[in-house]
Amino acid sequence: MRLLIVLHHRFELWNAPPWFSARLRHDFPQLETVHLSTYDGIEPHLRDAEVVIAWSLRPEQFKVAEKLRWIHSPAAAVHQLMFPELITSDVILTNSREVHGPVVAEHVIALIFALAKRLPQAVRLQQKHVWGQDHMWRGPALSDSRRGPRPREIAAATLGLIGVGSIGREVARRASALGMRVIAAREHSEKGTPEGIQQVFSPSQLDVLLSQSDYIVLAAPLTPATRSLIDAARLAKFKPDACLINVSRGPIVDEAALVEALRDNKLGGAALDVFVEEPLPPDSPLWDLENLLITPHTAALTEKLWDRHYALISENLRRYLNHQPLLAVVDKKRGY
Fold first, then answer.
1. Is the pLDDT of residue 189 over 80?
2. Which of 56, 79, 119, 174 stands 20 to 30 A from 139 (CA)?
3. Cα–Cα dist 6/17, whole Å
4. Closest CA relative to residue 328, chosen from 16, 24, 53, 11
């Protein structure tokens, strides 16, 4: 049985280190493990592959893999694999949502604190050698005589969580432990209320959640239903001092509408880790917004990443070889 690992990415951490395949060969000697660092010449290896670990496959590559039974994506998002041939096939798709959940949740909490305590403004003042205590407290003067948001506490603030998958659940637990009131919107609200969440809304009640929230965290998968979910109309439902945080996928937010809302100071601020186009182009207007905190898709970065990947993949390989149900199976019809 052939296990094919084909991971090629411009960013170093997203590529499996050499020890990864070496350990798989040691722990699973019954497998023929092939590790490629490029998609060039992949077709001969795909023909006999029963299991593939890859970020993506094109439909024409998938067609070649006649023996394929299982694809594992090291990402949490799998929209890049949602083509009809795979969706309608019997091939199992799993992802790494449980690998990324805890570390992305930590990043979300860091962004909430940064926005609440106005840390980006403090950094800019430091760079200018300005002792900005008064400026930090009073907030910037706005064109309509209002003042910008002041430093505030997050205890008792309301966090509106859109998506309660592996990332959302971890965010909810951490935010609740910090004294925040956590409310959430999920596609299937009838599934109940996860730990740390006080109230669950259905998708049709999303505007109610937005109007109550001090911080809105996007942790939903990218699907046709969530693309441009946060548009101008939805941004108008935010509290004037509410903050938006996106650690999901860039296309969930209408970036042009967000730029306009931030320029007009209709929000308290925003923090984005993901973007419609990545890397973010140098001429993007997002760079110059003082009330926007940008992190370059670093929410999932950790030195423990591939150890966690190995734990999940090796467990699933054992299950697969023993004909047991796999962990982190994706519902291909729903796309997550």
1. no
2. 174
3. 12
4. 53
Calculate ∠ Cα 50-54-57, nearest 5°. 85
Could you check whether the bond before residue 282 is cis, i.e. omega within 30 degrees of 0? Answer: no
**Options 277, 278, 319, 334, the catalytic residue:** 278
* CATH architecture under which domain 101-294 falls: 3-Layer(aba) Sandwich (3.40)
Active site residue 309: no
Candidate list 72, 100, 186, 297, residue with the active-site label: 297
53: closest CA among 297, 316, 322, 298? 316
According to DSSP, residue 198 is labeled S
Report how far residue 105's alpha carbon sits from residue 39's, in angstroms, rounded to the nearest whole number: 32
Q: How many CA atoms lie within 13 A of 238 on its CB side?
A: 29
pLDDT, position 261 = 97
Distance from C-alpha of 240 to C-alpha of 146, rounded to nearest angstrom: 11
Q: Are 74 and 14 in contact (CB under 8 A)?
A: yes
Reading the block at residue 284, the tokens are 């993007």
297 annotated active-site: yes
For helices 97-116 and 305-321, the axis angle rounded to 10 degrees is 150
Strand order of the sheet with strand 70-72?
32-36, 2-6, 49-54, 70-72, 92-94
Sole residue written with tokens 């509106």: 160
DSSP H or E run through 46: helix 43-47
Tokens of 68: 């394929």
Concerning whether 249 is annotated as a catalytic residue, the answer is yes
Single-letter amino acid, residue 259: V
Q: Are strands 215-218 and 158-162 parallel, antiparallel or unpaired?
A: parallel
- CATH code: domain 2-98+302-321 is 3.40.50.720
Check 118, 181, 234, 249 and give the catalytic one.
Answer: 249
Longest dimension (CA), the chain: 71
Nearest to 267 by CA among 298, 295, 293: 293
- pTM attached to this predicted model: 0.93
Q: What is the pLDDT of residues 47-106, one digit of tens each?
A: 999 999 999 999 999 999 999 999 999 999 999 999 999 999 999 999 999 999 999 999
